[in-house]
Amino acid sequence: MVNFYVMRVSKTVVLLIVLLAAGTVVQGKETIFKLENRFLSRQLSIEDGKLRTLFIENKLVGTKLSPLSCNEFVLRLSDATDKTGTDRLVNTEDFRVENVQDLSDNKEKRHSYRFVLYNGKEDMKIILYYELKEEEPCCRKYLQIIPNKKVTVEQVDVESMALEDAFQNYTIKSITAQAPSQWKPGLGQPIYTLQTGTFWGLEFPAACNTVNNNLISCSYLIGKTLQKGEIYTSYKSVVGMADDIEYIDDAFYTYIKRIRKRPLRLQIQYNSWFDYGNRVTEKQFVSSIEKIQKELVTDRKCPPLSAYVIDDGWQDISDTADWSDTVWTINKMKFSPYFSESTNAVHKANSQLGIWLSPASILGGLSMVPKMKEYGFESLSYGMSMTGKTYMDKLEQRVCQLAEKGISYFKFDGLFGHLNIRDLELNGRGTPAVPQLNTEGFASNDRRLNASRYDEVKLYYMTAATERLICMFNHLAEINPEIFIAITNGAYLSPWWLQYIDVVWLINADDAASGSTRTDELVYRDNIYYQIWIEENTKFPMNAIFNHEPKKTQFDETEDSFKKYLYMNLSRGTGFIELYIKTHQLSSGDWDVLAEGLKWSHKFFPAFQHVKMHGGSPKHKEVYGYSGWSDEIGYVSIHNPLDKVQKYTFTLNRALGLNPDNPTVFRVSSPTSHLKEKNLKEKYRYGETISIELNPGEVVLINFENK
After folding, report:
1. Domain boundary at 613, 644, 679, which?
2. Cβ–Cβ < 8 Å for 153, 75
3. Is the pTM of this model over 0.90?
4. I need a labelling partner for 82 at 20 to 30 A (CA). Which of 54, 175, 272, 286 fits?
5. d(CA 137, CA 84)
6. Is 687 exposed, middle or buried (0-12, 13-18, 19+ CB in 10 A)?
7. What is the pLDDT of residues 215-232, one digit of tens each?
8. What span, in angstroms and rounded, lies between the C-alpha atoms of 50 and 29?
9. Residue 478: is it exposed, middle or buried by C-beta count within 10 angstroms (0-12/13-18/19+)?
10. What is the per-residue pLDDT across 161-203, written as a single tens digit (0 to 9) for each?
11. What secondary structure does DSSP assign to 310-361, as a single string?
12. 277: exposed, middle or buried (C-beta count within 10 Å: 0-12, 13-18, 19+)?
């Protein structure tokens, strides 16, 4: 239950605090406000009209964060983004508290404060909100800016607090325009405190959550001009508590699971790309639907696929194509109006229809960019602007129209560019103009933009484009609450995207895992995983990754080779499994392997909620694998990429994802190996150690079940 503290207040304090909150303590001239539940406590103080955080307590581990310095907010203001010499910083110290209101609601089990602050010099009011729900181990905060004269808000820091143990997990910041596989903007990654067990961030994908000399800044660039009396509401910051300082990741991913737009779903679907490329026709597509339905569902009793997806090739990009009114029109020479024949076929298969589309038109629509420029749509040097009002309104109108016609899955490919080329708005269309950076004459994908001195204009675009895309995603969800959305090329790995979409593409990776053997293919893709999660310390749930696999397009391998590749692939634990197959070339044995693998995914999907990578570097030929667990079921995959025998030892503990409070005894089995030959016992429980010898290139998948 939320705790409340009631104290008498002096007359002088009452003059300051119009409506005194119930949860306060008065100590001399200082008035203390507490937001508290069984997980955490955030204690605020007003002294001499100044508001600050005294400390934040993590009750789960008994630690306290006492700020070395603290501002409840920082704003960078100016007369306009294009007016030099007008920038100025204001923070909590420049404002005086006018009143406080307790907004707590016992019925909703919410503890909340509203602080009203005023700055006479800027003639600006700031309203700060703090929120704490009774059964959540995290506290939120946001602010409203209300100027009494025109002003431009360039940057908003919702949290600005120096903490001794503040740690920035992800430190790369490469907002490139042209560079091979170097799109690493570092946006929307959380901050941790390593000794006190907390995580921090803004609930906005394009946020800049950073640590500089112990100073945590949860901020974003916006460059928004506010008129007199206009109210601007910031994104919310969040401070969450971990129950163990060694496992802050677990707490953070549990929080992300809680705020997702839609719960994690097992989405198994077929995609036409590796089957037909952009030459796909409706006749071909329907034939693949019918073949897959027969082989997997009818003959081998797999559950129906979630969706069948038409990739690049359905759109009309002919010389006579007209996108002036409706963008991304359907090629009527290849497909029926609104894919009616495809829709009928997927419904017969108890499934749904999905399509691929490139918002920036850089993939599959590049030839239409000059035409759209002639229409008056906002184009960049390479593709279309994600902040251009005319174009984005047309795009949103089109995808919503398609959703209303029954499209239940969208693969949005090419948002801000692709693997090697990004497009950035420099002309102030839907973004703040910054002419003082002297980008006149630059292409929007100019290599010179790789330099960090241009980061401000790039971040303004990323913020505005992210906000515009979010509006489109929310509109799609209004039409179909169960819609499934993937964002791919040009997207960045912020976990806060999951408030709006379902999966994000592996950044800086090729479509197809390269290599002459299945071992090479696994090493290529798994090294991308290792680079992202281990080396770069990215915080994003693996279960929400789009990894462009599994693939079956070569037929010079044994069924055993395909099986071990498939299970290793599935063990990565993504809930999004897109089949890239040569539908009409698979053998009966291939279908058998694929069917059993998909059945395994259905059975072990609960374990995907907590999937982790373990072991060494795939690139350096060290043994590695993945582990996923629920209380009743789990698995451990292991791959030896070396051409020599290697021994691997691991412990069934929390580091692998097991719950230390779960006394379950698990029985073991394997779809890839004879476990008796590996000298494994029949049963294991938490804390036991397993040693296993792996042959060259061998994949072992161990199932753990509470039977």
Report:
1. 613
2. yes
3. yes
4. 175
5. 43
6. exposed
7. 999 999 999 999 999 999
8. 11
9. exposed
10. 999 999 999 999 999 999 998 999 999 999 999 999 999 999 9
11. E-TT-B--STT---SSSSS-B-TTTS-GGGHHHHHHHHHTT-EEEEEE-TTS
12. exposed
The helices-and-strands tally (H runs, E runs) of the chain is 11, 39
Report whether 188 contacts 238 (CB < 8 A): no
pLDDT for the residue numbered 8: 26
Cα angle 5-7-12, degrees, rounded to a multiple of 5? 130
Q: How far, in Å, are 39, 106, 228, 309 from residue 113 at the CA level?
A: 18, 13, 25, 48
Range of the domain at 308: 267-613
Do 115 and 169 belong to one domain? yes
Between CA 241 and CA 250, with CA 247 as vertex, the angle to 5 degrees is: 75
Do 524 and 702 touch, CB atoms closer than 8 A? no
Q: Which tokens hold the place of 126?
A: 């700031």
Q: What is the DSSP string of 225-289?
A: EE-TT--EEPPPEEEEE-SSTT-HHHHHHHHHHHH-SS----EEEEESHHHHGGG--HHHHHHHH
What pLDDT is recorded for position 26? 59
Residues 6+ apart with CB under 8 A from 224: 152, 153, 232, 432
Cα(188)–Cα(501) distance, rounded to whole angstroms?
Answer: 15
Q: For residue 28, is pLDDT > 70?
A: no
Q: Coil, helix or strand for 627?
A: strand
Verify that 221 and 272 share a domain, yes or no: no
CATH code at position 596: 3.20.20.70
Structural domain count of the chain? 3
Return the closest-CA partner of residue 200 out of 113, 141, 260, 258: 141
Buried b (16+ CB within 10 A) or exposed e, 575-604: bbbbbbbbbeebeeebbbbbbbbbbbbeeb
What are the beta bridge partners of residue 417?
422
Q: Are residues 374 and 272 in the same domain?
A: yes
- Binned at pLDDT 50, 70 and 90, residue 6 comes out as very low
